[in-house]
Amino acid sequence: MPTDADAVPEIILVHGLWYGRGSTFLLKKRLRKLGFSVGTFSYSSIFREPADVARQLQRRLPEGRDVHLVGHSLGGLIILQMLAQRDEPFGARVVMLGTPLKGSVVARRMARLPGLRQLLGRSAAVLQNGAHPPGGHTEIGMIAGTAGRGLGRVTGAIDGPSDGTVMLSETRHPGLAAHLQVSAGHTGLLFSAEVAVQIAHFLSDGRFARR
């Protein structure tokens, strides 16, 4: 955790599909209490191409100092796309919350159902296909929910452990520095006090706290 002697570490929160700046309000408040300076990155998850959003995120990063990134769901994929586009190493850490690295079976089901593909907008391809953590020294941690409450039940796509929207198996990748399961739904990851504490631990130490 940050101490009084440290420079205040910075975080930028990146929301997911259909969410907005307001969805990260409570998480931002908790991380500030844990000693971080926290900002948000807002974008159109429906009408903007993810590659364009990733470039916009890159421009948001300040020059000359490292800023940690936390992405919820699609937000994590946007962060990975930004890292893949960078020419220089990324010196901070990343935490993703319920991000479908292997692609989302729910998104693939929605893409096949009449009238639902439009709800995915220009993010449809990246949500269906996922993204891989880049090679190099960037430490990336994943927090995945296991409560099983969410969109997956509505579409009938979920068959196995999940946060209700993203399958637990979709959040795993050997390129991750750490993977943690918590009892929360997909949206609940943003409102969990435990998630906030675990984010703070990973960003400070490169690992999640032992429970």
CATH topology title = Rossmann fold
Radius of gyration: 16 Å
The largest pleated sheet is described as: 6 strands, parallel
| Total domain count | 1
Residue share in helix: 25-40%
Per DSSP E runs of 2 or more residues, the count of β-strands stands at 6
Structural class: alpha/beta
CATH architectural type: 3-Layer(aba) Sandwich
Order of helices and strands: EHEHEHEHHHEHEH
> What topology, given as strand order, has the largest sheet?
2-1-3-4-5-6
The first-to-last residue Cα distance is: 16 Å
Low-pLDDT residue intervals, each spanning 5 or more residues: none
Which shape, going by the Cα principal axes?
A: globular
CATH superfamily: Alpha/Beta hydrolase fold, catalytic domain
Number of helices: 8
Task: Write down the CATH class.
Answer: Alpha Beta
Tell me the fraction of residues in β-strands, as a range.
Answer: 5-15%
**Chain-averaged pLDDT:** 90
What's this entry about, in short?
This protein has 211 residues and is α/β, with parallel strands linked by helices. It contains eight helices and six strands, in the order E-H-E-H-E-H-E-H-H-H-E-H-E-H.
Question: How would you describe the overall organization of this protein?
Answer:
- The chain has about 210 residues and is α/β, with parallel strands linked by helices.
- The protein has a single domain (about 10-205), classed as Alpha/Beta hydrolase fold, catalytic domain (Rossmann fold, 3-Layer(aba) Sandwich), CATH 3.40.50.
- It contains eight helices and six strands; from the N terminus they run βαβαβαβαααβαβα.
- Strands 2-1-3-4-5-6 form a six-stranded parallel sheet, sandwiched between helices.
- The longest helix has 13 residues, at about 195-205.
- The protein starts with 9 loop residues before the first strand and ends in a 6-residue tail after the last helix.
